[in-house]
Known about the structure:
The chain is of the alpha/beta class and 271 residues long.
Amino acid sequence: MPNQSKIAFTEKGIGPTLVLLHGYGGSVLHWEAVVQKLAASHRLILPNLGHLFMSKQELSFSQQVEIFAAWLTAHFPDQKVHIAGISYGGALAWGVATAFPKQVDKVILINPMPPSAIGAIAIPVIKQMLRLPLNTKALYLILRTPIGRFFLKRASEVFRVERANFWDRIDDLHGRKLLFVCHVILRFSWILKNENWTHWEQALQRWSHETLFVFDPQDTLFTKNTYLKLQKTLKISNAIQIPGAGHQAIHFRANEISQLIFQFIQSQSNS
């Protein structure tokens, strides 16, 4: 298993320690607007999770949780940290907090990926593509077809934040760039299909962390009912809906989300 020490990170600000986890295929830049708002009041830790998501060796979700927990222990020994995660980063947040509760204090989940995510995906073409038993060559050929281009277009509408110029050139994708896209898709599909999600669904029944749950009821990737189901499983009373925020809500509604995070962490600190 890859060494957790290879997880690079940046650090900004002074105050309560808050670890910010970006989504699959994203980067720490997704948190940039939130960081600008919270750096004056929090010690913000932004790990680059690409080492986990796209390592040469395929890592299951459970393995990623173990590696990241080891990273937390190495960098914050004898200290509980707050964790905020969006999308797949939200799943990693609830995974680490569930499996290693003594390392995590408060948790902020923003449009978090639920267990058994493929079945919960609300966009049919994305769900179908992730379910197909494909190899790189087959996926490459599919992505060159009208159906494949439609899949890429729908994916771009969900994940386009920092890579708008990349997604705008979908029609020009070929060669190495398209092979990279294939690698990203196939690895994500492998992670979703090679995990014992029943284990996590059962483990989440024991959730005990104080949690802020933020989601867009109009999110196109996961439905409102999917988020409400996860909220019910975790028995979270502190849930905020932000209609129209989009799946990458921390980019489009950074001011509002930053204020919610600040109030949530501050209230616990005062108590």
